[in-house]
């Protein structure tokens, strides 16, 4: 007997009715989870700033940098990596809604750029790039878990066919045959939740004494090693990827893992005082 999970969850929570000629406006799980990642992440950063004595008035600026950097990076990354012809023919597509294309690798590049810009003028308060980045990846891991769960609610980024008992039939996704598939979105969401707790544990253990770059390195290695492996269980996002041994997500993950290894090595060479490394 073949067992599977029939997934027919609606991507919409409810619809705001037409009001003064505007609307109706559907409220979707993906948008709610996307926004929730930023809101909860902001509260986590407030807690970290309080514990380490950093100026709380910087939180609003940091949040704004992250929102803009994430959205712009994800949009530009999608077109640059997956639809470059659209980006060069009509660059306005990046900012014109609906935002149906978001690339996680592009989001990471945007976040790194945003953190560098934010930290440039805040070194006097000890908010160096690596100090901020080490703490920000805690919230990025949580946001990643939310976003991938949002992909599940949208029945998008589906996995390849499988006979495992937890295979999902994505009833609302008519692009692929209605057969059990790996819930790849759920795999990535759970992995990001685990990473969130691991990073939070590291920070809670060392706080200000956390070796610079350690948590960034852990984040890059964890996320992109698993991303590389999960891609073998997922359908390709674009047709051109079918012609390659590795798809675009895997190709982009390789330098990200190498970068993570670099950060780990550097953090061990220059540990902050009061941290003992057991070799």
UniProtKB/TrEMBL annotation:
Membrane-crossing residue ranges in chain numbering: 29-49, 61-82, 102-119, 184-202, 214-233, 245-265
UniProt-recorded Gene Ontology molecular function terms: transferase activity
Record's keyword terms, sorted: Cell membrane, Membrane, Transferase, Transmembrane, Transmembrane helix
Residues that hold a 1,2-diacyl-sn-glycero-3-phospho-(1'-sn-glycerol) according to the record: 148
Lipid bilayer topology: Multi-pass membrane protein
First-level EC class: transferase
Family according to the record: Belongs to the Lgt family.
Matches recorded under HAMAP family: Lgt
PANTHER family on file: PHOSPHATIDYLGLYCEROL--PROLIPOPROTEIN DIACYLGLYCERYL TRANSFERASE, PROLIPOPROTEIN DIACYLGLYCERYL TRANSFERASE
Name this polypeptide is given: Phosphatidylglycerol--prolipoprotein diacylglyceryl transferase
Organism: Dyadobacter arcticus
